[in-house]
Specification:
By secondary structure, the protein is mainly alpha-helical. Helices cover about 50% and strands about 10% of the residues. The chain folds into two domains: about 50 residues; about 30 residues, no CATH class. It has four helices and two strands. Helix 1 packs across helix 3.
Length: about 110
């Protein structure tokens, strides 16, 4: 949590944003605004550290979810390995999978 006053943080964030938009060098910007370079750099470091410490949080959002129960087939191999596949899986795919997993020892 920040030890700085929120209004001061907001003011310096606005100042740093103004500098970025100005496309001026830091020295030219500080001269035009009558700011000390050391204070400007200090606040850049403070704000950078705060943004790393507390990344911006996104507002919670909800997306629609639709659950569809899919019938499953279960093959229990002699080794005890259980293979679960959607009921509509092609027979040749099941054969290849069982053949590949079958010799495996658990």
């Amino acid at each position: 949590m920040s030890k700085h006053r929120p209004e001061k943080i907001l003011a310096w964030k606005a100042t740093i944003d103004d500098w970025k938009r100005s496309r001026q060098t830091v020295n030219a910007f500080c001269r035009a605004r009558q700011l000390t370079r050391s204070n400007f750099d200090r606040w850049r470091r403070i704000l950078a550290a705060e943004s790393l410490a507390s990344p911006p949080s996104l507002p919670p959002s909800f997306v629609p979810v639709r659950f569809v129960a899919e019938p499953m087939a279960e093959v229990v191999l002699r080794s005890g390995v259980v293979v679960r596949l959607p009921l509509g899986t092609a027979a040749d795919a099941v054969t290849r999978l069982v053949t590949a997993v079958g010799p495996a020892s658990c």
